[in-house]
Amino acid sequence: MMPIVRPDACAGLRRISSWRRGLALALLLPGLLAGCAGHPQRAHDGGIYSRQALLARFKQADSNGDEQLTRDEMTRGMPELAPHFDEIDLDHNQLVNFAELWSYMQLRAFTAQDARDHGRGRY
Questions:
Q1: Per-residue pLDDT tens over the stretch 65-106
Q2: Is the whole model's pTM more than 0.85, yes or no?
Q3: Strand pairing partners for 49?
Q4: Dist CA 4 CA 19 (whole Å)
């Protein structure tokens, strides 16, 4: 006799699997795309920075070399991210270090991928 499995239980397993796949892509894809894009600053979709490119921009924006960006440094050096300063500054000390910036960019990449997956009806 075969065990009875609720159909929604299988859908839950597929959802978890897709979520893990999406997370793995969000963590690995930026570096892979940036290497294949032909443009050293951004991947071909124009929105995902490679870690090395982002670190180079971060160091360029860090005018005093303290390895942290103030709101003013971010406004001058990374104007496209400046409106998100408070979201990026996870510890709310009014300074953004590279780890906070990279975490924010990874979250942005993951949520963009998640939105694309939902738009295609994958869930």
A1: 999 999 999 999 999 999 999 999 999 999 999 999 999 999
A2: no
A3: 42
A4: 26
